[in-house]
Amino acid sequence: MHSKSSLVKSTRNFLWLCSRAIGLVWRTNPSLTVGILLTSILQAILPTAELVASKLVIDRIVTNLSGHHSSSHFWSPSLRYLILIAVLIITLGQVLVPLNDTLRSILADRVTGQVNRKLLLATSKWPGLSHFEDPQIADDWERVRRYAPQSGLEILTVSTGVFVNLCTMIGLAATLAHLHPLALLLVLATALPQMLAQWRYGTSTTRHLYTQTSESRKLGYWKRTQLTPEAAKDVRSYWLWPYFQFRYASSFEHTLGQLDKIRRGLSLRLSLASAVSAAGIAGVYMYLIWNLAQNLSPVGDLVLYGGAAMLMQSRLLELSAILGQIPKSVIFLPSLFKLLDVPADLQQAQTHRCVPHTIERGIEFQDVWFTYPGNNSPVLKGISFTWEPDQVLALVGPNGAGKTTIVKLLLRFYDPQEGRILLDGVDLKDYDLDDLRSRIAAIFQDFVRYEFTIKENVAIADISRMEDQDRLLLALQKADAYKLTAKLPKWIYTRLGRELGDTDLSGGEWQKIALARAFVRDAQLVILDEPTAALDAQAERELFDRFRKLFEGHTAIIISHRLSTVRMADHIVVLVNGTVVEQGDHSQLLALGGYYAEMFKMQAKWYR
Ligand SMILES: Nc1ncnc2c1ncn2[C@@H]1O[C@H](COP(=O)(O)OP(=O)(O)OP(=O)(O)O)[C@@H](O)[C@H]1O
Description:
Blueprint: H1 2-28, H2 30-67, H3 71-74, H4 77-124, H5 135-146, H6 148-179, H7 181-211, H8 213-227, H9 229-237, H10 241-293, H11 300-331, H12 333-341, E1 363-370, E2 380-387, E3 392-396, H13 403-410, E4 418-423, E5 426-427, H14 433-438, E6 440-443, H15 454-459, H16 469-478, H17 482-486, H18 507-517, E7 525-529, H19 537-550, E8 555-559, H20 563-566, E9 571-576, E10 579-584, H21 586-592, H22 595-607
Parallel strand pairs: 3-8, 3-9, 6-7, 7-8
Antiparallel strand pairs: 1-2, 1-4, 4-5, 9-10
Helix pairs in contact: 1-2, 1-6, 2-4, 2-6, 2-11, 4-6, 4-12, 5-8, 5-12, 6-7, 6-11, 7-10, 7-11, 8-9, 8-10, 10-11, 16-18, 21-22
Bound molecules: adenosine-5'-triphosphate.
The site of adenosine-5'-triphosphate has 12 residues, from α13.
């Protein structure tokens, strides 16, 4: 009972997937889809028509040869007429193959483009970061990347393939049954083992590929480690090539070695089964030759029925190969539709409340607890602190204390599991998410180095200001990055990066470009995560001197391990292991003689 209901459920699920996939193909380009269907229907009818026409031509030739000896009688009007029809049918059959293939290729590319656009649109609606860090979603991406763009088209290919082969086979079966019902039975029975082997081949290899998705992600990773310019430095300086090659080779062996084993076993069965089907064809031919010898049938029958038996078998095999392909076409569709339908990872406010233009009361963390999705232990354990408007707040603490996590919560990349984060007394969750983020200029320590021009790299913080050159130049000046543009070949129009760019910058120069982004936006909140980590001592000092002026009228948060950068902050929060251990301004914390004072003295000692 249970297995029956699960069969009904999985069949319903399968049909739903197929209809959704075909719907996707249809909506991508209805006229191309119709073109493929029409050419497929014609391809279904033509093979039987070709056989019948050939038989009629041969029989007419034999009749004309036996009845008359003059050339004019041989070329009787009926023979010419039959030859013309046969040539037309054969030509049409030949023309349809490339036509159908071309239509399929065009549609395949369009479906791929459509699927990718849909996926990008769907991911743009994931408000947080959790989905990007979920290993199951990463597996779904891998399946989609490898197979799903073709899946919609494969479903179309499979369904038209099944239709074409069934139509062709009805004609062929009727022809064979006309010769003798046992001839039909013989062909069907001897094709059966090969059909089963073919089907098993398709389903087993697909199942294997599906279960190996995580492993093939690793395979891709080991390949990338040897190809990306970032890793190339390490690979060469540490001579990692043999090690990465080894990891790649063992991962390759793991995924594809097993597949080879499956393939070898199945191909042996397939060869044995082919021998059985060949025996079936031989049986039909023996019967035809015996008939011919007994003068029971014309020569044309050899072409018609022998051809029908061979074609029937090849179509049966094609059908089972197509049926074996179904799991491959379908098995990746759930991943595609899961990615398209995955619910948002954050609740969005229904009220569309905007962040006030002037922050009056500041920001307050109230007993905030946070654990990263998939982790067991919390990263933030009951964090509480207040951040007054127009203040510069600094977060300090050892590595892994949770400083960047606090910033991620402020941007609502994740929501805390317990506690609240208030902006002017209102929970961040109650603000419109897009509006909230548009009021924050955040520069992370792992900022992205886009292979764009300098102008674009700065304007990325507010695309609407792309043509506001004065603003962009001012931002570059504030970040002390303007000077470096002078030495570049195309000034601010110089494209940066190693892959597409004209030239590249040093780490510190890149950091200045990233810092300039903070000054492009009209943001109420500025977040700088390690803004001076890559700067030289003089640049850090200059930034430090100008910091107050640069962020005048801004509520800013700065994360830094360099306490020389941090000391000018109005309020300093010291985090250790996810909890606030001290807070106050620089002199208060020094007077306290705790973690901050110790770190500051240690750093000062090093400098001295
Ligand atoms: N995306 C993530 N998924 C799971 N755990 C994470 C993730 N990001 C950070 N963590 C964990 O959270 C802890 C705090 O990380 P966070 O980046 O906030 O530290 P931090 O104080 O900014 O450290 P650092 O000074 O090294 O930049 C770390 O122990 C880290 O392992």
